[in-house]
């Protein structure tokens, strides 16, 4: 009985070891993809992060605020369709910095990112303000967007 358990355990360990080794295999480098994404030799590139903060304007009219948020979402969609924005989303809880959400723009130019964020109706109305930061991340980041529609039944 002990021999049978030992052999079963040995087979299990060998199987797990093989599975782990297989997972560790490095994906084959794809120069065409790296070039198309603007990747450096490390597979990285520069982006610009915009942190949306609570603005100075408080709008009590729910219909007006609803229209501004609809315009905000439409603007995000347009920027994503144009390949200018690769990540956008709200923070799910309050924080001491009053950050409300963030964008990661597909540009290393803070000036260009600022032009794009200034088009947002909620920014224009003063509901949101913003801070801009240069950022260095995976050049593959924009690839997740093409799959988002496959997993989303709708937009908020």
From TrEMBL:
The keyword Signal applies. Transmembrane segments: none annotated. Residues 1-19 form the signal peptide. Residues 63-135 form the YCII-related domain. SUPFAM superfamilies: Dimeric alpha+beta barrel (SSF54909). Keywords: Signal. The keyword Chaperone does not apply. Belongs to the YciI family. This is Uncharacterized conserved protein YciI, contains a putative active-site phosphohistidine. The lineage of its organism: Bacteria, Pseudomonadati, Bacteroidota, Flavobacteriia, Flavobacteriales.
């Amino acid at each position: 009985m002990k021999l049978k358990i030992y052999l079963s355990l040995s087979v299990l360990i060998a199987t797990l070891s093989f599975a782990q080794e297989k997972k560790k295999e490095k994906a084959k480098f794809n120069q065409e993809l790296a070039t198309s994404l603007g990747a450096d030799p490390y597979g990285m590139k520069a982006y610009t992060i915009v942190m949306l903060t609570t603005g100075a304007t408080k709008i009590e009219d729910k219909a007006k605020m609803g229209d501004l948020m609809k315009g905000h979402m439409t603007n995000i969609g347009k920027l994503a369709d144009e390949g200018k924005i690769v990540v956008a989303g709200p923070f799910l809880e309050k924080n001491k910095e009053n950050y409300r959400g963030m964008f990661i723009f597909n540009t290393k130019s803070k000036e260009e990112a600022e032009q794009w964020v200034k088009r947002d109706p909620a920014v224009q109305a003063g509901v949101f303000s913003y801070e801009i930061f240069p950022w260095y991340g995976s050049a593959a980041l924009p690839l997740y967007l093409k799959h988002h529609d496959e997993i989303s039944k709708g937009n908020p």
